[in-house]
Amino acid sequence: MSTYQDPSNDRDALLAALQEQTDLLSAHPEEADIISKVRDDIEEQLAALGQEESQDLQAGLSPTLETFTSPQLQTDGFSCPPSPGGDADDSDSNTDMDDSDSDEDELNDHLRERFCSHECDHESCRLANEHCNIILMASATGVPQEHPQTIEAREDEPLLGGPGAVTQSDSDPIYRNLIKGTAAVAQCGILLLAALVWAGIFSHPLIFFSAHPLLNSSAILLQVQAALILQPTATPQQKLLGTRIHYSLQAISLAAFVTAFTIIEINKGDHPRLTSPHGVFGLITYICIIIQALLGVVQYFFPVTILGSVDAGKRLYKYHRHFGYSVLVLELATVAAATQTTYNVKVLHIPLWGVLVAAVLIIGGVGARIKKHKLGF
C-alpha cells in the first residue's frame, strides 16, 4: 500500500471542499465575506499538506540515502548480488569517489553516475534504481534534505490532542460540536458555574439585584456554547452555519450582559461605585465585551464599508479570536471576584473554590480545542 495514500485522500477532500465553496458562493453571493475566509483557510491547509507530503517523502527516503552515502559504499562501490550464472553486473567498475565530496550537488552527480545508469535484472538492483530516481527528483524539486523535528506540529493541530478529536466530520450534525473532544469538559465547567450561581440566588428571596448574577452567568454560558459550536467546523457549509449560530448566540449573550449592567447601575443608585475588585473587574469586562462585539460585527458584516476591504476584515478576524478567548478568561475572573463581595459572603455563600474549579474546566475544555493556525501561529 502506498505511503502517501492518506495525504492523497486529504488533498482530494480539500479540493472537493474548495469546489463546494465555489458552488456555495454562486448560490449565496451575500455571504461572500465569510466564504472568502473559508476559501483562504482551505488553501492554507492545501499548502500545509503539500509541505507535509514533501517532508514525508524525504523522511521515507532517508534510509536509502543513508545507504547510498555510507562510507563503505563510497569506498567499495556498489555490488550487484550474484546473477543465476554466478557473474556480477559489470557496472561494479564504477567504484571510485573522493571521501571528501560532501557537497550536495557533487553527491547527486555521483549518485546519478553510479546508480541511475546502472542496469540489472536483479530485484534489489531494480529497487535501488527506483530509489535513486526518486531521490534525484526530490533534490531537483527542492525537497528538504532533513526531516524537521516539528513535522508532527501541523498548523491545524489543536493545542492539545489530535486534529480528529475536534474536527467536525461530514456526517456529524453541528450540535455534536458541543460535546466533541474536550467540549464535554468545558460543558461540565460552565454547567457547574451556572448551578453554583443559580443555586445561590434561588435559595433566597428574589430581589431586583437577583437578575444581575442570573443574566451574567447565562450570558457566559451562551458564550461558551458559541465558541464550542464553531471551533470544530471544517467544510464551507459547516463554517457558514457555525458562524451564523455563533453570532446569534453572541447577540443574545450581549443583550444579557447589557441588561445585567443596566440593572446593577440602577441598583447602585447614589451609592459609590468601583469600591471592590469585583466592581473594577466588572467594568473592565463590560467594556471589553462591547469592543469584542464591535470587532466581530465590523470584520464579518462591514469589512469593506468600514475597513476598506475584505482582506482587512480577514486580518482583523485573527485578533477577534484572540480577544474573545481573553475576554472569556476575564469574565471568569470577574465571577471569582464576586464571591468575595460582602453580599455573597453574608448572603449567597457561593464558594470561591467551586467557581475556580468551574473556571479551570471551562478554560481547559475550550482551550484544548483551539487550532493554532486560526490564532496565527
From TrEMBL:
Q: What is its main location?
A: membrane
InterPro entries associated with the record: CYB561D1/2, Cyt_b561/ferric_Rdtase_TM
Residue ranges with Polar residues bias: 64-77
Where do transmembrane segments lie in this chain?
184-208, 214-233, 245-264, 284-302, 323-343, 349-368
Instruction: Enumerate the UniProt keywords alphabetically.
Output: Electron transport, Heme, Iron, Membrane, Metal-binding, Transmembrane, Transmembrane helix, Transport
Q: Which residues form the Cytochrome b561 domain?
A: 178-372
GO MF terms, alphabetically ordered: metal ion binding; transmembrane monodehydroascorbate reductase activity
Q: Where is the composition biased (Acidic residues)?
A: 87-106
Q: Where in the cell is it found?
A: Membrane
Q: What is this protein called?
A: Cytochrome b561 domain-containing protein
Q: Which organism is it from?
A: Aspergillus fumigatiaffinis
